[in-house]
Structures are given as C-alpha cells and as structure tokens.
C-alpha cells in the first residue's frame, strides 16, 4: 500500500523558518559584509527556455553522465522521471512512493530530497537516493535514508525497484531534514543534513560532533559494508563521527561541486533574518546555531560566536525568504556566464556570484521580457545537464496536492 506523499514543495517549510549558510576561510570568522559585495541588477540578460512541465513537485534534476544526454528529475512524492530527447517519459525511471513517510503537513521537508548517479554509472548502473521514511525507533517518527539502486539490465530507462540501504539517520522532527547528495572529483559521496527541525536549533545538533544532523558528510560507497569512511576525513580518530566533512549548518538544502575546480558550494537555509551561500572547507565549522550567516544568533551554549567560517554571500529576508543553492556555470552556450555561481531564492528571485580576488560580488538576474527581477513561480532547485548547461527546477502552484512543476534551461548573454 502506497503511503501518500503530498508533492507540495519542501521549501515551503523553509519560508516559515528563515534561512542560513556557510563559507570557509582558514577556520577563522570573517566579516561577510567585506566579502559580500552586491552590485545590484546584472548587466547580463537571462533567458528561460521551457523544457517540460506536468511534473508533480519537482525538487532535483541530475544527469547520468553516461553519454545519453538524458535529464532525470526527482519529484518530492517519490518518483524519478526522465526527460529524453526533449520529452518527458510517461513511465518513471524509479518509483519509491511506497517507501516514503506520509506527509501530514504538506509544508514539511519530507519525501524524496535528492539523488546522484555514480561517476561510473555508464558501466555499473549504480545511483543513490536520499529520502525520508518512517522510523520505528522510540522518540522518532521519521528517518533520512540513503539507498543505492541499479538500472535495469533490460531497459536503460527503468531502474530496479528494490535497492540496498547505505545509511539511516533518525530525524527528531518533520522539517529541516536535509538536502541533496553529490559525488566529488575524488569519487566519494557527499550528503547534507539539516539540524533536525527544532526551533532556533535549541538542541544544538549542528555543533554536536557525535551525530550527523547539521552536517555535510563524506563517505566511500565503493568499499566497505555498507560504506567506508575515507582515511583523510577531518574527524577520523577523533571524538566525533568520522563521516563528518563540515558542520554547523541549519538546513543545507543544496550542495554542488564546481565541475572545473572541484570547489564545494552550499546553500544553507536560515532562521529569522538571513540567507547565505557557503564555500565548504574540510573540517570547517559554519556556525549555526551560534551564528546566522555572519551574525550572532545565540551564544547560550557556545560562547561568544568567534572562530566560525563566514558565508561568501548573505542577504536579509527583505531580499528573499529561502535560499536555493545552485551551480557554477561550466557550459558553452552562455560564455558570459562562465565561472559564475548561479543560485536563487524560493520567492522567485535569481542571482549569481562573481569572484574578484577574495571577494564575491552578488548580482540580481534580469530576465528577458520581465520588468522586474522576480519570476512568477517558485524556484525549488537547480541542476546540470551532461553538457554542463544549467537548468532551473520550478513550481507554479503552491499548496495544491498536485502542483505543476516546470523545468527551464537557463542561458545568459
């Protein structure tokens, strides 16, 4: 029997709670006001080309880097769909709706959260999915599950229906469960977890190195059973969970690697006042709940708020309500956008960061044919095609049981 998951956007929960993120700088706190230079509206003109619609609550877009050129879209309700030769296939690539937790509150961060294909997917057919399932452990109603699946031997557009669980993390609440997963250039899998959902992070999970909540972790899924912790992880042989790569996050909804440099970017959704983008450094502490972006939030447990890594950009909730992490553009169709980090806000605004020396300058994206910089839909996520072109994952209807999701190709000149 299928446990119905209402496919309303997970980001809605973030709007209620606020926003936050992180960025490294030798482990020392820096002034984000010095790093975050806002130039205002971009001199570039952005265009959006509709690729497909009729998706139910799309939250993630990935490519299989197998030479097929296919785009894979994850729906919050538990299906992964394929866009092939510009058309949305009717039959899902994967359907795990029966494994997901029932979403009693459609604004909570539940359902399918992210997925990633193994770097050698073309040969081994392996891919990994992060989703929220029921927990049978006392005191917990939900859990984050990382599960490995394989493509069918008979049909490249269909996955096998059963997988192998790699990792489970119990969740104390229904929101701020975490985000996506991504493979680095090192071949290891990186996964982001929210702080567990308690108001203002009062439980202190993000600063607690004995657990994975509020962390970005790094694991080797090619060795060990069910995985191996890389020997060079920063907390190996210390009093901490060795999987931890970086910590101090509130709700790291989207992480991504720069395909050229290997740099890891994170969009961390904040609490009361600020949204932020972080550049992730090995072993870095990004401050939550002591800090919200570069500002002191609560020092009741952790001293004076010093020694944390500040974000490379931040903005107040007068600018946006929920930061949606994106990608550094490395495609070929928009040369003017090369090397810029494009991201958005759930409110319908999009931005890009331009690095000049050690500073990151934020620009608001202007879209062709629009008098202002706010789009008439919600931005749920971003994704990359096999050719490194950029896609925006959006949703027109908020709060409906079957909201209309649309995928756009993003270009700039």
Global geometry: globular
Q: Which sequence of SSEs, written as H and E, runs from N to C?
A: HHEEEEEEEHEEEEEEEEEEEEEEEEEEEE
Enumerate the spans where pLDDT stays under 50 for 5 or more consecutive residues: 1-36
Alpha-beta content class:
mainly beta
Percent helix range: under 10%
CATH-derived topology of one domain: Neuraminidase
**CATH domain class of one domain:** Mainly Beta
Roughly what fraction of the amino acids lie in strands? 35-45%
Number of strands: 27
Main sheet: strands, sense, barrel: 8 strands, mixed
- Number of separate helices: 3
* N- to C-terminal distance: 50 Å
Q: What does this protein structure show overall?
A:
The chain has 413 residues and is mainly β. It has a domain at 12-29 and 57-325: 6 Propeller (Neuraminidase), CATH 2.120.10. The protein has three helices and 27 strands. It has an eight-stranded mixed beta sheet with strand order 21-22-23-24-1-27-26-25. Strands 2, 3, 4, 5 and 6 form a five-stranded antiparallel beta sheet that branches. The longest helix is centred in the first third of the chain and has 6 residues, at 12-17. The model is unreliable at 1-36 (pLDDT under 50). Residues 1-22 form the signal peptide.
